[in-house]
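Suppose you are handed a protein chain with no further information: no name, no annotation, nothing but its sequence. What can you learn? This example shows the usual starting point.
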Amino acid sequence: MIGGPRGMLEQEVSKPRSVGRTLGRLAGYFKPYWLALVGVAALMIVNAWVQVVTPELLGQAVDCYLTPAVSATLSVGEGASAAQQQRSTTTPEESSSFACWFGAVPADAPAAEFMAGLGRLVVGLIAFFVIGALTGGAMFFLMAWAGNHVLRTLQVEVFAHLQRLSLGFYSRNESGDLMSRITNDVSTIQQAISFALIQVLGGALLLVWIAWNMLALNWAYALLSLAVMPLMAAATIWFSAQARKAFRVTRKEIGNVNAELEESISGVREVQAFSREEANIEAFRASNAANRDANLRAVAYTSALAPTLEAFGYVAIAIVAGVGGVFLLQGQTLGGAAVTLGLIVAFISYVQRFNQPIAQIAVLWTNIQSAVAGAERIFDLLDELPEIVEKPDAIPMPPIQGRVEYCDVWAEYKPGEPVLRGVNLVAEPGQTIAIVGPTGAGKTTLVNLLPRFYDVTRGAVLIDGVDVRDVKLDTLRKQIGVVLQDTFLFSDTVMNNIRYGRPEATDEEVIAAAKLARAHEFIERLPEGYNTVLGERGAGLSQGQRQLLSIARAALVNPRLLILDEATSSVDTRTERQIQAALEQLLAGRTSFVIAHRLSTIRNADLVLVMVNGEIIERGTHEELLAQQGFYYNLYMSQFRRQEQVARAAQRSGDGRPALSQVPDAA
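A reasonable first move is to predict its three-dimensional structure. Written in structure tokens, the prediction is:
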């Protein structure tokens, strides 16, 4: 796993593993839009045909109308040569390499007839240009229409799959990389589908068609005209390879820029607290300079490709004009056919058109490779199987009464490294279970098994005698409320944040839940009250206020099982006393598991579990555990007793302000 912005961007420039397989899978998403693709193919053929025909029409203009007209004019003069007299009696089609599409004019016809024929050809050229423009625009629109529909389907599918993946997947993958899959990678695919793919396919078709037409007109002349093409191909391959390497460095450097930017914005409080603004600015300036230099190197190669190909194109044109002119003036044949002025003009135009697709294909093929690599990463994500899956015969979870059993439960995140070791526990309906212990003891893992965020490695977790692995996930989790220490609030109104777990709740029910959580008073003081839109993750509210909203959210759901990661750990003593009464009402009649950091929670618990290294080493009430004078007793004497002393002092003073040492982390 490559983590962070740097790793994310390194992935973006990797080459695809299997272009054919990935394109085949991507093509499956286009099946509903096959008619649009047929239209794109038809328009592409017409567009290529127009571009191939145009040089031939220029050749016809010369051989069918301009040269015969000049010859006819000269032949009537007194100084006309024998060759000119001979050409004046020959029809244009007999002396031309082309058929005259807009009507052959006799050699001895008046000049007006040649002008009329030339006028018809010019109108035909204009019509072909219009057809080319219309077919090109329609082709790109149809492909973009189909591509955007496919990308919408793909994005929704990826997002839906992300919602179904287990929490274990998110613990191993960074959110920035996952966001890149659904934004940057999809954007790369969109650019390739809407523009690059059509340009490459259309360019390849045009190259083959032009080469075929040139060989059909005069194979020897065609081979001479295309003599520099191997050199052009070699230059294109070399410059493209160098540019690709340079752009890889560029993407890495922009990754460094993004990393610096993300860290500086996320840690702006620490930056200002330690007066590190100037140091951060200097570091950001250095990373931007490296990005600038990398971009200049990449642009140098891409800029050099076009003039190099243009120079080779001029060489090809010189060969066409020079060799053709010599054979024309000497009246010799080339490849068994006569060289006419119209043929030379047509071949010059063919060579010019032949050069353009080569450069386009070279540049855009790199984009297609990047898009295919992005599609591979998206498909890799879609192929990721959720660790928590429902059984085919899973049943709806019956209404929970509240009896919870842990039967010889083992759990691990990495094979061979157990986090829970043979945990046995019975919680009766309505009991409050407090869990204490040092960091890494397995407290959070223990409660995460209840809503089946993770599965046991061995043993079973039963709710009312039903194994949580045998029921449908949504019917299980809807009956379990969770209040975490790190509260997550959405960028939405206060009302909708509380209503998040129960969207159908009325405004009155939301307000009642807020009053229960003692949040109503501060909500009313907000600028728009319950309709105040919160900032990202609840920005603008204190940690205590965010937790009050989280408690209100859980109260509104009215769960039968409740999991609290010490909901009062980030509030002051006065607020804690207010919340404690609300929690007693909220916990009444519900089975609750509380990861406890404060003595007040532990005193009110029906059962206290002491966990160390994934095992329950002590259990009992607060008084019973103190009497044992074991691990819990030592924990109380070192931490909880100090909390008690601080709380009593605050209660005597009446200000409710906690000391810095009031809330040590006992978990």
